[in-house]
Design goal:
Structural class: alpha+beta
GO molecular function: helicase activity
Oligomer: single chain
Order of helices and strands: EHEHEHEHEEEE
Keywords: ATP-binding, Helicase, Hydrolase, Nucleotide-binding
Strand content: 15-25%
Organism: Sporosarcina quadrami
Radius of gyration: 15 Å
Distance between the termini: 14 Å
Protein name: Helicase
Amino acid sequence: MKMYPEFQDITRKTEIGGLTKLELIRKLRQQSISLNEYAEILLSNDKFTTSKTKYNLKTVELTIRNLGFPGGATMPQIIKRAEELGLDLCPLEVGPHIRLNYLDQPEGSTRNLSRGQAPSGSITIATEKISEDDDFPRGFYLRKISGVLWLRGYIADDLHVWKTEDRFIFCQRKDC
């Protein structure tokens, strides 16, 4: 049974933790996962930490439209609505772990690619930002282009309007 029956959601159970930062990066390389410069900045930042103990986390993937925004929404609006639905922001380390576990992501498109917009077929991991600097990467997104799996970092301020078809992953609140 779907938790959000009015939405087309995708739920995943992912094992998080149990790896050091270096081990996690090594696993990404072993799987031939490409990183952009922003992802490397996030992974090398002291605020990017990993859990020493393994735990299972259930995530929910929804579009902005599924969250109730037919005209798009800003990050503060998206977060507020997700919280109302019993969803939480993910720890930053969730991005690399989901990338390692989601190796069969469908191919994205390079058509109609606009600077400042989420690429077609990408999935953004909803996380707390680790810096108030709008020029510092906010978080990760997953993408597959020309057969290559990517873990990419992105920059977006709180005024950026996400499109209705943009996809986000949130953590399901444990008490739901």
